[in-house]
Amino acid sequence: MIEDYNTYHFTLKENITVILQGILIITVLGGLFYQSIFGILFLSPIIILYRKAKKKQRISTRKWQLNMEFRDGIISLSAALGAGYSAEHAFEEARRDLKLLYQEESHIMQEFSYLINQIRMNITTEKALIEFGDRTGVEDIISFAEIFATAKRTGGDLIKVIKTTSNTISDKIEVKREIITLVTAKRYEANIMKLIPMGILCYLYFSSPGFLDPLYHNFFGVTVMTILLSCYLCAYLLIEKIVAIEI
Questions:
Q1: pLDDT for res 157
Q2: CA dihedral (145, 147, 148, 154) positive or negative
Q3: Which residues are within 8 A (CB) of 151 and not within 5 positions of it... i.e. 6 or more apart?
Q4: pLDDT at 247
Q5: How many angstroms separate the CA atoms of 17 and 12, rounded?
Q6: How many CB atoms lie within 10 A of CB 25?
Q7: What pLDDT does residue 23 have?
Q8: 214, 224 in Cβ contact below 8 A?
């Protein structure tokens, strides 16, 4: 069970991998734009920014995975309620169904186990779900928890409410998946665009040795290359922002 889905802690292996990737990036940039060890050291803060970006990406991926698993969870929950189980026991039955789809270490299995343990400790189902939503920060889970709590408090038709909510969340996730599929091709195009300036520098460096020498190891050349590098990094961030569609 993850205490906070809005934070991510790299394992030792992941840390080493990300840092090595960052070192490779600044080595390539420093070599192409400055051809100097001092240029590489000057760009070393990029490693920290790269690590933060990777961490943000892992958080987003983990939340999306949980969201998809949760969709299956509430479908199983709706089926259990329809079979006549009480709200408290429906989570146990839903977990048995989910066991056929997911491994024990999956997010939804761990979270449902935690929910069941809370309910057994006389914590209300509504409170456990609201805490679950707050901890994950996933919009669909937060909405479901609020709807579930309202239905329980007002004595509404819980089976119908959960079935309707599960259908709505399923439709929403399918739309998200379609959007992601459509955007994937554009992401590949964006990645190619980000590599083009580097490719041009590599081409000039290897095809015309000495052509770029005036831009290295002198004040004017370093200034020009720093401006170009700044423009390139700004364009890189702009492209990332364009393709990073919030769904």
A1: 75
A2: positive
A3: 157, 158, 161, 162
A4: 56
A5: 9
A6: 14
A7: 95
A8: no
Largest CA distance in the chain: 80
- Rounded to whole angstroms, how far apart are CA atoms 195 and 117? 50
SS3 sequence of 98-139: HCCCCCCCCHHHHHHHHHHHHHHCCCCHHHHHHHHHHHHCCH
CB 7 within 8 A of CB 54: no
Is 46 inside a domain boundary? yes
Write the pLDDT tens digit of every residue in 168-201: 888 888 888 888 888 887 788 888 888 888 888 8
Residue 6: inside a domain, yes or no? no
* Chain centroid offset of residue 159 CA: 32
Which residue do the tokens 């006389």 mark? 122
Structural domain total, the chain:
1
With 0-12 / 13-18 / 19 or more C-beta atoms within 10 angstroms meaning exposed / middle / buried, residue 48 is exposed
Query: Do the domain assignments include residue 2?
Result: no
| pLDDT (0 to 100) of residue 78 | 86
- pLDDT at residue number 190: 84
Could you say which residues of the chain have pLDDT below 50?
none
- For position 174, what pLDDT does the model report? 84
Please, are residues 93 and 81 in contact by the beta-carbon 8 Å criterion?
A: no
In a domain, 5, yes or no: no
